[in-house]
């Protein structure tokens, strides 16, 4: 019985986690007309009509493209900037390094909602409303990403960097040939998290994307609730939003496993 406690507990947690997702998929494939549980449990009447209706009745493909651009560009830039900053904070020596690092980290205690208006006023003054750069740039200074990178890089042996410099490698070459190959697991892990954060982000895209053409998928689907759209179509749209997240997780699962396996190792 003692050995069964943990598996049973994990099974219960998994069941509670998966149930809302399963209900969403069942309602998405239910016949049109607002059919929910328990009628949606009849899988013999499953249909693709709800997906066809939501794709044909709203600009979902444009919203999905906006979400994809917002998420992918943010992932690339955040990983680049966070890894460079993490390398500087971990292995470089310069005056005020610790003060600057902890001051930067202190921004984690400030909720985004408190800085939303200043962000919007600044972006609007620069002409970034309803633009991709106005959507992406304010999210690039990610304190959590810098902290994770710094904590991972600080464990790397200093001898690797000293050997590279003795061979005449520049700082950029040290970063590209020594740092980046060694931090691939944490890059993949952080990339998944950053992608999910931006793909599911709602508040900032809602504020900055004021036209229908600049809506992200989460914002666009939320606007459908105020229109004459059935719950089946809304669940079909929500199911579509989950697919890219599953693909990203599936593609990077091996790196996630490597990151977990090596997270306890010391240099």
Automatic annotation (TrEMBL):
Q: Per the annotation, which location comes first and is thus the protein's main one?
A: membrane
Q: Which SUPFAM superfamilies is this protein grouped with?
A: MetI-like
Residue ranges spanning the membrane: these are 7-30, 68-90, 99-120, 132-153, 174-197, 234-256
Name the Pfam families for this protein: BPD_transp_1 (PF00528)
Example GO CC term: the record gives: plasma membrane
Record membrane topology: Multi-pass membrane protein
> Please, which domain of life does this record's source organism belong to?
Bacteria
GO biological process annotations for this chain's record?
Answer: transmembrane transport
Quote the subcellular location field of this record.
Answer: Cell membrane
What does UniProt give as the signal peptide span?
Answer: none
Question: Where does the record place the ABC transmembrane type-1 domain?
Answer: 64-252
Keywords, comma-separated and alphabetical: Cell membrane, Membrane, Transmembrane, Transmembrane helix, Transport
Q: Spell out the family assignment given in the record's similarity comment.
A: Belongs to the binding-protein-dependent transport system permease family.
Indicate what this protein is called per its UniProt record.
Answer: ABC transporter permease
The protein's organism comes out as: Streptomyces solincola
Q: What is the lineage of its organism?
A: Bacteria, Bacillati, Actinomycetota, Actinomycetes, Kitasatosporales
